[in-house]
């Protein structure tokens, strides 16, 4: 899902998030969002990517974590 709630009001966003939480019981969902709070609310695991614009947008760092075990973040350099 690519920014599934970007143009929605808070009530519609909550309904979509509730649907994602229900669907993830039976499906794997990949969610692309700039809303980190949303990622934390609906995700079991998260991955964050950082890119270097001066290098043509090449990924330079990524880390992932399990929710709520955010202490398991593992920074990685490419």
Topology:
Elements: H1 10-23, H2 36-42, E1 45-52, E2 58-66, E3 76-77
Antiparallel strand pairs: 1-2, 2-3
Number of continuous helical runs: 2
Low-confidence stretches: 69-78
Question: Largest sheet, if any?
Answer: 3 strands, antiparallel
Strand-residue fraction? 15-25%
Which percent range fits the helix content?
Answer: 25-40%
Based on Cα principal axes, name the global outline: globular
In round numbers, the mean pLDDT is 78
SSE order, as H and E? Answer: HHEEE
The strand count comes to: 3
Describe this protein's structure:
- This protein is an alpha+beta fold and 78 residues long.
- The protein has two helices and three strands, in the order H-H-E-E-E.
- A three-stranded antiparallel sheet has the order 1-2-3, with no helix packed on it.
Structural key phrases:
single chain; alpha+beta; 3-stranded antiparallel β-sheet; disordered C terminus
Q: What is shown here, in short?
A:
The protein has 78 residues and is of the alpha+beta class.
